[in-house]
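Example 3.
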Amino acid sequence: MISPDKPFRLCWTTEQARSVFRTEALEGDDAVFLATHTPISGFEIAGRDAQQFESRNEEAVLETLSEPSRRHAFCVVQGEPGSGKSHLIRWLSVNWPGENDLKLLLRRADGSLEGALSQLSQRLPDEFQELFEGLGVRQKASTQGRANNFLSTLANALDPEHYDEKLGDEEWCATHDPSSLLRHDYVRKGWQAPLRILTLLEGGDGERNSASASFDLYDIADLGPIARRAKLMLESPGKDLARRIEHEAIKIEEYREAKWTPLELASEKSAEFPVSTELLEVLNRRRNDSIQSVIGVSAQGLKVLFRKVRQELQKRGQRLVLLLEDITSWEGLDDSLIDVLVFNAEARGDEAEDDVCPLISIVGVTPAYYQQLKPNYRQRITHEVILGTSTGGLQDVAMLRQSGERTAFVSRYLAAVRAGPAALRSWRNDLTTASDVQAPNVCIACEKQESCFSVFGSCNGVGLFPFTENSIGRFFEALKVDDNGQSWRTPRGILQAVLNPVLQQADEIVEGQFPGPLIETSAIENNKKSDAVLSARLERVIEAQIDETERDRYKRFVAYWGNPDSADHTTIDDVIAFAGTTRPQYEAFTLPWVDGDAERIKHSEVAKSQETRVAALQQTDKSIASPVIFEPGTVENEQRTEPKRQETPAIQTAPPKVQRPPRARNQTRSQRETMRDDLRNWAKSGSLSNPSAWNDELYSIISRIDARKLGVSPYLFKRVVTPEMVNLEGTKAAKRGYFTVEAKDWVRLGLEAGLELQLQPEMSSDDRAFFLRNLSVMTSRLAEETKRYLKTRLPVTVSGEIWSPVSSVAQVILARSWLRGVLSPEAPLIEQIRHVLSDEVAPKSDPSSRSKPWQRWLEKTDPWHDKLREELRSLIALSEDGRHGMIGSGELVAAITRMNASGRMDELPEFEGKLSGTLTPIGAAYDLAEEWNSECTKLQSIEFQQIRDRCEALARTLRGRSISEHLKRADQVISSVSTLLPGKAHDLVSEWKQDHNEIQTASPDFVSLQQLIVAMEDEASHPAELPQRLSWFASLPARDLQEINGLAQLGERTVSALLEHARDTVGEGGEGQSLSSLKQIGKKLVLAAGENR
Amino acid sequence: MSVLSRPQGTPDRVWSLISGLRSAKFDMTPEDFLGLLNPGYSRAGVTEIAKTNLASDATGVANALGLVERENSLVCLKVTDIETLDDLRDAVHRSLLTCQEGTPDAVILDAYSWLVAESHKRKELDWILATRADALVDMMSAGLIGEDDDGSRPMNTTKLPALRRWLEFIGLGVFLPIGKQTPFYPSAAKRISVELEREMNSASNPMTGIEFLGLVSTLCPYLDQGLLFRRACERIGYTADPRQLSAIATVSLREIEAQGLIEFNLVGDSSDAISFIHDPSFKTNSFNQVKLIGGKS
């Protein structure tokens, strides 16, 4: 179909495509096979006689194996399913030169053993057909019935006495009695493994795909829950076996969930399930015997058959060449077959055996099968052709490693599809007469060839339409490399998952609906599909520029034909392109063209950007080293210290519950892609595969927000916004106090931008601009979110600002200093600043002589003052570590000024939360400030009252005398009377003597006390304002006042006591003394005692 | 000495001085003024005090920016309406706008104007991030005139960090967290937002694209078509298309738009449209009507 406005001609039909593509090369006809054959080369070689291969290509293999003098070969062609084993074997068959050889090509066909035997029967000459008659008869039972028979046979075979010739595991069977478990009714009804194996041996409904029909660890895992129930009815040791299988099955299930294949598990982790592994081996050892009786074939019959065939051929002087596409088709008889194949009559030199013909066998095996091959078989492999190599996972395919090889592979099929079956068959016929006839190529005569090749490209004269070389590469890279243990990056994968679905869309191309959704098969990695692979910017461009009805088609096109990582306008071979695809390609498929700025479209945009990016990183590296740029306040530091959390790579992987499989399951995805997919998944589903790494990244970004812009000190910011609290929505169970960032578009775009800017080595300036803008927007919005969060964790003032603890902390320290008499509100400002920041000095106000509230306040601040000073230093520090001396003084000065003015601390905003944990000191300041404001008036009042009361009491006692005069007189009286009346009022006299002596020794300032007494009486001279009053109180000699007053009161009590004794003495003495002498003593005593009054 | 030649005079240190002086409510001796920032105090028996020259850089910058002055040997506030850090940002911005051409501190906005002019010429910002500091300084110097008080070049690699820091402080750039790095990204979104919010009540709303550009270039003359921008263009011999926005203006306005503070529309005849740097990730790349959403900046 030709459309004048299109650069192409629709040169195939859907039916043509269907007829050419078959799932297996062997199933197509020879014409297609030959027309599409891609020479196989570059493979690895091994085997005992590998050196016989002169080179690593198919011709060398053919030449070596078909060499006329060869008497024996057992060649294994190893490759993943779909890697081209069949293709190579078939090519060898088609080109096999030995006319005297009996060549038998046994295809995989339906994958069943029965099918394999049937082929053997069909391909052998008629004279051998009778040999098949005794080979066996299929049972009449249903599949399930035969599965039950298989299980029963297996159970019987597990009896230690079952075999005459011992298998070596009889002791284990005797110890564990697996037979009793497998015979149990629960197992018979519930265990699907026998049916699974039987189904595979019968071809797996055509979907076997080289799968091995052996028991595996997942079969044992399936047995676990059944064993749990069955064990209740079993006797030991079967009961113990069931219990152990039950426990090990749980662990196996964990690995199954982690996507391990059974083979990997058996190979890497068998030590973790010893009983299951042993049971597995025991079962597989008996599989062939058991299955043969079920499917009605006899191993011995097979051996006899081959012997007879070979004997006959020997008589005819012929060789037998056996080409087996897939050994797994022979499972059930495979060990017997291999016995036949490895048998080298010549080497054996056994006279009884030398009547058989030479046998050259070439057998296709998967790497998985090869791994299970018995060592004695492996040793007898003469030649090995290994089609791919593995770097820890599945093998690749050597012939598809290079882009050019893939393109050539595709182009051959494109030519074949365009030619159609009839033309191909005709060509095949021509080939029989002339071997150099070229395969049909409709491009040669196509009138659109020039434009078509120009837009889509060509390979060896074959147009790539509707593909391009780029799209072939993109499709290939998008194919799953490990789809439950099977790779799609194989020739078969390309046929089934790329060529077939795309070429089925002939109608869509005509209708302008190409590429339709069916081009994306399940063989494509989900993260490479068009709804996941596009860069954020390209997504945005499509959203902005493409009509909604066309967006999905557009995305599919750029995902495979373009570069989904780019939203740039560039030129490709001087043709303008967008997102890696030229304008003519868009137009060819009736897709809208997105205009770019013509002036800015440059060649080699990426190269330039890559060049400059190096400089950018160097530049920013240098800037980072200099905190002058980024860390205000740490200017003098040469090295910036990152928070500890950032020392670990921003992107890290949390250890999974169960280790990942040992193969490189994610080798198709870079770290960047993996993380980007993770983010996108988070935006859709709210879950992340690696939440801790992303939460670390989020914290890393938030922690670099300038806290001062949010109205909090950096120190407080770091105390509140901690790594433990910061998380992305869905990554942690909701908890009060968490800073959870919702899964909004701007968060995803911002995080993705950060990711791209960090990990994407090549980026255009437009991409960078896009990412920088998104990052900038996110940073700005995160600042707002962070402020909102801070308001939930810290008190908020009535004006809506976050409360700063600086004032409260400073004012608590100030109040304490006032009460301790070490700082006056009248002190110079800078002195006050220094004071509150410095270590505490000794008190000067005799705190213990103060009133109870005064003392109580000091006691309450005792445990906090050091911590509060430390907090204050950190809160106002202008360096990250709080050292180096420079401070942000604004808040502190304001706090000091306000406190000095009113004596009250700043009013505190109401707060229902709790300032705990690392905020405890701040919480203490909050509480102390609140208490001060409610107590300070009372505190000063009580202190004043106490001082005044003490002054008044002392004044009364002095009776108008000076303190020293009064104390001297009192001491004289007490001394005189106590001399006259020794032993009287002894305690009081002693106390007086002691206290008086101490006072005399201390020589307090009596004058100041006398002035205080006078001043107390003059209320007009007292400071009026609270700060000054407190400061004045603190400056008063409270201890002296207390002690002198106490001494004075003690003197009063002592004299009073002595007076009483004197009176008593006078009364008693009257009975024996003269009246005159008595009067004399009495006068002295009274005089002495009354002296102090 | 200019602001940039005192690299230790960082914005937060200057803020300490200004906010301290303001809170003290009295003029101070130069020593006490310095003590606001660097009082020296005892901690665990050790005196914590920074080198005097570090702190004096900040007093010098406060002086250079005209925020304080000396009267009778006392330091007093020259600008009295600074209550918050944002006020200081505005005051510094105002102060820098009043610098005479060729004076040492005019270099800060001249350098930014040069960045804007170059971004207009190159239609992208990548080069700013990508160019090494020494190369950037050399390029920038070509667009600057005059010399510093000490006779040094108006811009050098020592001054460049200080330039970025002050530009960030007044809202003419941000330090973006990319991995462990924080490169300077010269978005003027913050400053434009602040300035526009102030004009919310007096400016017509919506307004035409040309009116909007006129308003922005008046408030922020270092941006497209502003006085400083035009001067920068002259110095590098570049004629800027007045209907085409620079890359810096584009990213700044796009960011404000993304924050929902402004709306750009293309209505009716587009002959009077102003163009952003072309970016197909936006539906429209030009506008002739602007709506200020307001509410916050």
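The two ends of chain B are 34 Å apart (CA to CA). Chain B touches chain A through 78 residues (CB under 8 Å).
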